[in-house]
From TrEMBL:
GO terms for molecular function: carnitine O-palmitoyltransferase activity. It catalyses: (R)-carnitine + hexadecanoyl-CoA = O-hexadecanoyl-(R)-carnitine + CoA. It comes from Cyclopterus lumpus (Lumpsucker). Residues 1-47 form the Carnitine O-palmitoyltransferase N-terminal domain. One of its GO terms (cellular component) is mitochondrial outer membrane. Its EC number is 2.3.1.21. This is carnitine O-palmitoyltransferase. The active site is at 468 (proton acceptor). It comes from the Eukaryota. It is a multi-pass membrane protein. Gene3D superfamilies: 6.10.250.1760, Chloramphenicol acetyltransferase-like domain (3.30.559.10), Choline/Carnitine o-acyltransferase, domain 2 (3.30.559.70). The gene is cpt1cb. InterPro entries: Carn_acyl_trans, CAT-like_dom_sf, Cho/carn_acyl_trans, Cho/carn_acyl_trans_2, CPT_N. Residues 170-736 form the Choline/carnitine acyltransferase domain.
Length: 757
């Protein structure tokens, strides 16, 4: 109980002579330094609020305006056209004091007016999206002028959230356009009678109920920051009553070829340090806003709940709880939970000190308490039983205190007792097992409710499992990319594989969390989770034949190439086409999240049918060009607020609030996404160059299948010469298998397109 002794700042004893007071200088110094750190953070937040509040101007520009106004008054000119004299009449001061104070008041009002004007101009500029629809190398004069003006207004170095209030709101598309685009996307998947019936349903909806629902949606768009995001978070994620493990959470992998150190505690030390350094940058808003083409900013709102966040269960809906700060992380090892303090005396522990603390946990041989070992299974099973268990067993006492330690932690760390990675006699099988381990582990050795959990394996390999409701994959990908790069290239290791830095060996040991839980409490959640984990099939496929470099030589978008290739692969696998989901972002708008690109189009289906039926190569290439252009246009429409599915989803939510039924909306939203796809971004932060460090290739990450009889496909385009695929499906469906039967499909596809006519 060393930590309890250090928490005592003073001791006293009562003697016949009076009270003998003994102050602990060390403890008081700890309290003082922690208080200093807390006040520094408050001051930093206040300063950042001022800086981003006046962006794109600067706080110092106020002084420039004041000096300019005073200078013109000194030259006996009134730049306020009488306003300064009007202000003077209401100031009970001497004449000279009235003149000075009224000039300051007018200067401040003028400065604030200029700031509002600049921010309005910036918002207008960011509402322009026509640049996205222009062909590469053919930029219009309007877009050139727009870029110049945007660069001028963004010339000051922005903070992470500087652009937030200047980002445009997501527009509500005309209902006629959405219905028309939906019918066009559904055409290749329906027979003629089915399409005729769906067209009739759509026409009736558009002319009657749709307009009524649209009016409510436009009213929300006028009032809310984003008319989609809050409903999307609540109804798609938080109201889901099934397990979030596999069904919602997703994973990220370590480097493919490199493990910076084989020492588990050392890898944990650097990884935890890198994550906390990233949190510091987020808190101080020192991260650069993500910008497309180095100019167009994306919404950064998802960064706000990255750390110190937990999803807690409810009866009808879960709740995301976020705390302002946390000075500890929660650690799991061999069935035991620990609270590891990462700050002491107001400073962050060094990587070597964190390694030392992690090694203490690894060396601790104490057995798990009754019910403790598989406690994490509660977060892996159904949500309602987890809520009732929480109410019954975690509402008070030591269980509540220990649960609070996990949920209030900055993030969760699992020290896994297995070895993972590609190395070994079966590299392909090892990667598949690595993916499954990160996706669900043993179903009880991750805390799936945390915003993200870090997994450090026995051989030094690492990975990440993220909860989905608070943010989308690109936000987590940036965090993980920063962590891997900082671990390997900034923090580094000594020659013997240990973390760098000194160790204060007087640090108190990590605190073991105490529990009093009947063992049978976790059995139901463990049974449900294990059945789900056993059913999922994962396959990781590093495609090394070529990458985006050779695809671009065909003058084709790499994403369009891959998506059309997936349509070809699915057609060969199942003999037909299916509704296909590709995630695109809407972060060009404030609080934007995602939109669906319906990759299965009339054009892509026409190309696949032509290719498979053996039509002339020139005809197939022409159809492929049309298909790739169509896909690119669909992606641009989704990014600029003219997608299909989020609009229809929100119309459906309004209909439920009004208590009215729409056969059209009900049928649209019940259609299964048998092919769910997503591209993982890479090298967004430019932390290191793959050309100089070719072995440090990221594997990306993946997710489980959305439909029981479908596939989940995640892919990451790595550098110029590699594409990594993560494919998932379910064993219970006899028609799906994650391991591709034709591993050379994309090479065949490329070679066909490369042939000269």
């Amino acid at each position: 109980m060393a930590e309890a002794h250090q928490a005592v700042a003073f001791q006293f004893t009562i003697t016949p002579e009076g009270i003998d007071l003994q102050l602990s200088y060390q403890a008081l110094n700890q309290i003082y330094l922690s208080g200093v750190r807390s006040w520094k953070k408050r001051f930093s937040r206040l300063r950042n609020s001022v800086i981003k509040g006046v962006y794109p101007a600067s706080p110092s520009s106020w002084l420039f305006v004041v000096i300019a106004i005073l200078a013109t008054m000194y030259m006996r000119s009134d730049p306020s056209m009488g306003l300064i004299k009007m202000i003077q009449q209401h100031l009970p001061l001497s004449t000279q004091g009235q003149t000075m104070l009224s000039a300051l008041v007018f200067s401040t009002l003028l400065w604030l007016s200029l700031i509002l004007a600049l921010r309005f101009c910036l918002k207008l500029l960011l509402s322009y999206h026509q640049w996205m629809f222009e062909q590469h190398g053919r930029v219009s004069n309007t877009t050139k002028v727009w870029v110049t003006l945007l660069r001028l207004l963004s010339s000051r170095k922005p903070l992470l959230y500087s652009y937030q209030t200047s980002l445009p709101h997501l527009p509500v598309p005309p209902i006629k356009d959405t219905v028309s685009r939906y019918l066009k996307s559904a055409r290749p998947l329906l027979t003629d009678p089915e399409f005729k019936r769906m067209t009739e349903l759509a026409d009736r909806f558009e002319s009657n109920l749709g307009n009524r629902l649209q009016r409510y949606l436009k009213l929300k768009a006028l009032w809310a920051t984003n008319y989609v995001s809050d409903w999307w978070e609540e109804y798609i994620y938080l109201r889901g009553r099934g397990p979030i493990m596999v069904n919602s959470n997703y994973y990220g992998m370590d480097f493919l070829y490199v493990t910076p150190t084989p020492i588990q505690a050392a890898r944990a030390g650097n990884t935890i340090t890198a994550l906390l350094l990233y949190r510091r940058k987020v808190n101080r808003e020192e991260l650069k806003p993500v910008r497309l083409r180095t100019v167009i900013p994306l919404c950064a709102a998802q960064c706000e709940r990255m750390f110190n966040t937990t999803r807690t269960p409810g009866v009808e809906t879960d709740v995301l709880q976020h705390w302002q700060d946390s000075e500890f992380v929660a650690v799991y090892h061999k069935g035991r939970f620990f609270r590891l303090w990462v700050y002491t005396a107001g400073r962050l522990l060094s990587p070597r000190e964190i390694e030392h603390q992690i090694q203490r946990i690894l060396d601790d041989l104490s057995p798990p308490q009754p019910g403790e070992e598989k406690l994490g299974a509660l977060t892996a099973g159904e949500r309602v039983p987890w809520f009732h268990t929480r109410e019954q067993h975690f509402s008070s006492g030591i269980n509540k205190r220990s649960l609070d330690s996990i949920e209030r932690a900055a993030f969760f760390v699992t020290l896994d007792d297995e070895e993972q990675g590609m190395s070994g006699e079966d590299p392909a099988g090892n990667l598949d097992r690595y993916a499954k381990s990160l996706l669900h582990g043993k179903c009880y050795d991750r805390w799936f409710d945390k915003s993200f959990s870090i997994v450090i394996y026995k051989n030094g390999k690492s990975g990440l499992n993220a909860e989905h409701s608070w943010a989308d994959a690109p936000t987590v990908a940036h965090l993980w990319e920063y962590t891997l790069a900082t671990d390997a290239f900034q923090l580094g290791y000594t020659e013997d594989g240990h973390c760098k830095g000194d160790v204060d060996r007087s640090l108190p040991s990590p605190q073991r969390l105490a529990w009093d839980i009947p063992s049978e409490v976790v059995s139901e959640g463990k049974t449900v989770a294990q059945a789900l984990a056993d059913d999922v099939d994962c396959h990781v496929f590093p495609f090394r034949e070529f990458g985006k470099g050779r695809i671009k030589k065909l003058r084709v978008s790499p994403d369009a190439f891959i998506q059309i290739g997936l349509q070809l692969a699915y057609f060969r696998d199942r003999g037909g086409f299916c509704l296909t989901y590709e995630a695109s972002m809407t972060r060009l708008f404030r609080e934007g999240r995602t939109e669906t690109v319906r990759s299965c189009s009339n054009e892509s289906c026409a190309f696949v049918r032509a290719l498979e039926s053996g039509e002339a190569e020139d005809q197939c290439r022409r159809l492929f060009k049309l298909a790739s252009e169509r896909h690119q246009n669909l992606y641009r429409l989704a990014m600029t607020g003219d997608g299909i599915d989020r609009h229809l989803f929100c119309l459906y939510v309004v209909s439920k609030y009004l208590g009215v039924e729409s056969p059209f909306l009900k049928e649209v939203l019940s259609e299964p996404w048998r092919l769910s796809t997503s591209q993982t971004p890479v090298q967004q932060m430019e932390l290191f160059d793959l050309k100089n460090h070719p072995d440090f290739i990221s594997l990306g990450g993946g997710f489980g299948p959305v439909a029981d009889d479908g596939y989940g496909v995640s892919y990451i385009i790595v550098g110029e010469d590699m594409i990594n695929f993560h494919v998932s499906s379910k064993h219970s469906c006899g028609e799906t298998v994650s391991t591709p039967s034709d591993a050379l499909l994309f090479r065949y596809f490329y070679n066909f397109l490369e042939k000269k006519a």
